[in-house]
Amino acid sequence: MKFAWIRPNGTWKDRKDSITAALEAGFDEIVDFDNAETIKELGNVKIISDKEDADITLIGLDKKISIEDVNREKLKDKKVAAYVEINNKEDEKLVSKLGTVADYIILKGKNWKVIPLENIIASLQNRNSKIMVDVANYEEAKLALETMEHGSDGVLLSSNDGNEIRKLGELIEKTAQETYDLKSATVTKIESVGIGDRVCVDTCTMMNVGEGILVGSFASGLFLIHSESLENEYVASRPFRVNAGAVHAYVMTPGNKTRYLSELEAGDEVLTVNADGVASTAIVGRSKIEKRPLLMIEAEYEGMKIRTLVQNAETIRLVTDKKEPISVSKLKVGDKVLAYFSEGARHFGMAIEEQIIEK
């Protein structure tokens, strides 16, 4: 996931306003050398500086550094960010070496735009370091994050402009979106199976019509379970909620990983997905497990059969191939619903290449 650090400049008033804008935009990592304690009164933030009390140690702003400098700082059991100004080919080679030891490498270039960054990204593909670029405004940040196929991992925005900071926050949120190729699966069986424990997931996100989360009994295929964003005669709409299904079911989380519904708790992350397959990260605000009557739904796509168990109630909905919500109380064999199919298996929620039979 792309990320950004904010480095405010000028007077404390100027910096305070920009830090407030950064917190409102979702950034909680601030580069500052003078006001760590005061900044932390504004919110729960991490301070990046060369001071002993920094959360992340920053070196290289005032002198050229070496691998030995980074290793010395890492002995203090802190993450280290190495700042390197790129002026020539030797500086590029230094970055490649530092990439083997530093946690973050912040690049600053005075006489370059795209080409050196492309070279550096290519040389560090197999490194553990996160590549960042020191930028002065939103346009430079956008260029750095989008260079080549992957762009830099992050940017250091040296600016007090609240509008620039907020625009960058919107860009980071957009780049965090994932896309899932939803298929039209044909419903082959609908069966009441009795009482069981089901999970209601309340998120910190207001979902729209056509949006929900991916849930299923099998790792090979997850149904798009619709949010409670529709009004009905029984209950008011709750756009933040998905009545997701039985406790054993998988739910898709960021990075194409899954978790069991029963594991979710406040502060965890899940993916909300719309009918076009565009996914965004949502924070779980609450997870409720209650005994309810369950309905087993089976569907098939190109010979692959998947199942899920949901509460047997009119307010529980899937999404049809027409991208419209449909209540499970009205669902029939032969109907087509949206689902995500994956190849291989899962090991502790991560996709792996392994043969597995689910039934």
From TrEMBL:
It catalyses: 2-amino-2,3,7-trideoxy-D-lyxo-hept-6-ulosonate + NAD(+) + H2O = 3-dehydroquinate + NH4(+) + NADH + H(+). Residues 1-171 form the 3-dehydroquinate synthase N-terminal domain. One of its GO terms (molecular function) is NAD binding. Residues 185-359 form the 3-dehydroquinate synthase C-terminal domain. The keyword Protein biosynthesis does not apply. It holds the Pfam family DHQS. It is an enzyme of class 1 (oxidoreductase). The keyword NAD applies. Keywords: Amino-acid biosynthesis, Aromatic amino acid biosynthesis, Lyase, NAD, Oxidoreductase. Its EC number is 1.4.1.24. GO terms for biological process: amino acid biosynthetic process; aromatic amino acid family biosynthetic process. InterPro entries: DHQS (IPR002812), DHQS/DOIS_N (IPR030960), DHQS_C (IPR056179). Catalyzes the oxidative deamination and cyclization of 2-amino-3,7-dideoxy-D-threo-hept-6-ulosonic acid (ADH) to yield 3-dehydroquinate (DHQ), which is fed into the canonical shikimic pathway of aromatic amino acid biosynthesis. Belongs to the archaeal-type DHQ synthase family. HAMAP family: Arch_DHQ_synthase (MF_01244). PANTHER family: 3-DEHYDROQUINATE SYNTHASE (PTHR33563:SF1), PTHR33563. This is 3-dehydroquinate synthase. It comes from Methanosphaera cuniculi. The gene is griH.
